[in-house]
Amino acid sequence: MDLNWEELEGMCLNCHKCPLSQTRHNVVIGKGSKKADIMFIGEGPGEQEDLQGVPFVGAAGQLLDKMLLAAGLDENDYYITNIVKCRPPYNRDPLEEEQRACINYLRRQFLLVRPKIIVCLGRIAAKAVINPDFKITKDRGIWIERKNTYMIATFHPSAVLRDMTKKKPAWEDMKEIRRKLLELRKEQQIEG
Ligand code: URA
């Protein structure tokens, strides 16, 4: 079934597929450019995101914004969303069944945006999108190509806030993501 944005957003807003729908204030669908070359995927909304209905607006989001800006990426370059669209109570990890109930919304978002690059922010997103055995400390920063889409994972900005030793590798990853973006755009210019 091919959905357009309006249909997809309507389905998300009316979703009651899992118990997170009972405690949410808002469904948090995504932000940024719907024609972006990069799709960032976090884990799930936190308190501020739930209250405002927008992903990555709390402390982790502010760090992410700073890193994106410093890496030379602007809002036209990216779309940001999460594995689950409703806040898990007390910011616990989303359960497998909650992720399963929600993952089709993410697939639809991917099909509509069609990014060249997917960036998983943290372990939960990397396991759900790249590989269930993903080990964030060992496997981050490594590109994987699947059907012409390049995927990479980096530390979640909340993890960077908790442990400053993660800041340098997270920053290296962000610069690498920007480098890859420019490379892919250049290749496309040459081909096109
Ligand atoms: N953490 C996430 O994974 N997603 C958000 O939207 C906010 C914090």
Question: Could you explain how this protein is built, in words?
Answer:
The protein has a single domain, classed as Uracil-DNA glycosylase-like domain (Uracil-DNA Glycosylase, subunit E), CATH 3.40.470.10. The chain is an alpha/beta fold. It is built from 9 helices and 6 strands; from the N terminus they run ααββααβαβααββαα. The longest helix has 25 residues, at 167-191. The protein has helices at residues 5-13, 20-23, 47-52, 59-70, 96-113, 123-129, 136-139, 157-162, 167-191, and strands at 31-32, 38-42, 78-82, 117-121, 144-146, 149-154. 47% of the residues lie in helices and 14% in strands. It is globular, with a radius of gyration of 16 Å. Strand 5 and strand 6 form a beta hairpin. It starts with a helix and ends with a helix. A 6-stranded mixed β-sheet has the order 1-3-2-4-6-5, with helices on both faces. It binds uracil.
